[in-house]
Prior knowledge:
Blueprint: E1 2-6, E2 12-13, E3 22-23, H1 27-40, E4 44-47, H2 56-64, E5 71-76, H3 83-96, E6 101-105, H4 111-116, H5 124-143, E7 147-150, E8 155-159, E9 173-176, H6 180-189, E10 192-196, H7 200-216, E11 222-232, H8 235-245, H9 251-261, H10 267-278, E12 288-289, E13 302-306, H11 307-319, E14 324-328, H12 332-342
Parallel strand pairs: 1-4, 1-14, 4-5, 5-6, 6-9, 9-10, 10-11, 11-13, 11-14
Antiparallel strand pairs: 2-3, 7-8, 12-13
Amino acid sequence: MHLHWFVPSFGDEARLGDLSTAVPPSLAHLTAVAQAAEAAGFEAMLVPAGEACHDGWIVAATLAQHTTTIKFLVAFRPGFVNPPVAARMAASLDRLSGGRLLLNVVTGGHPAELAKDGDVDVDHDARYRRTEEFLDVVLRSWHEQGWDHQGEFFSVRGGGIAQRPKSVPHPKIYLGGASEPAMLAAARYADVYLMWGEPVERMADRAARAKAMAADLGRSIEVGTRFQVVCRETDDEARAAAEDIVSSIDPAYGERLRRHADRTDSVGQSRQNELRAVAEDDWLGPTLWNGFARARLGASVALVGSGASIKATLDRYVDAGIDTFILSGYRHDHEATRVGRHLMPLLGDRQPLPV
């Protein structure tokens, strides 16, 4: 089982919608989050991509100087930087951090946000064709010299880079998406296929299919997922804490958010939208809670409970072939410490954090 944490590079808060608890994404706070996650025993941290976020490459390069072992899963959108340049950027960061880079290829998103970054008039399926070509060029840049490429989106003459990645054979590539083009791109190029968290019965078949698609191409692939988390000493304490985190949300804001979500062409977001309709009082199961959907898009399903209850839930996902979990929680430095105290000691040789 692999557990990763999250860098809140757009800002943080203890209670959503309560500005008195907001924390800006300063170097001091992001460093505190990274060091808390490292102390808790997380393997890596997702550094997100988005219009509200600090640049992921710069965040990861900076935080690598303030940590020693934790890796950084840098999310980036292919197509904004030519793939040979991206290959060089990634190789440099991997070498200078001591092999602590992982790559999360984010193909899509909300069309309006993509357009703000200059990605205009590229439809859903074309974005995945571009992603595949991008990754093909990146991989060749890391491993070959003196090659040419002429494709639908990119052209290269005499390709290859001087400084290769430190990671062998290269930094792991994570790729997510619920659509058929996304799954095919992952089968061809990714080391880890990512899905947003849902009840395990909705994910098991897709996890098996992702592995089968890769096997058909002579490859193997791991499967991971993304959850929020509210971990406390007891289940009752965790449930009370979860409700407190969303207690200050303006219902009108939630309605605006839902309208925004309905305009996406992301299949993964559409699946998250469906969960709002089937949840009973926001609960999808004994430890699966969808209350964060009132305040955020994307990965809104949370694991809520004691360390033992959350471990039992994670074990069900592992049994379904999903063994990488990217978690986040509010505030991110405090919640990382709570996970380190209540959950991590149940997962093997990790020692509990002091109270």
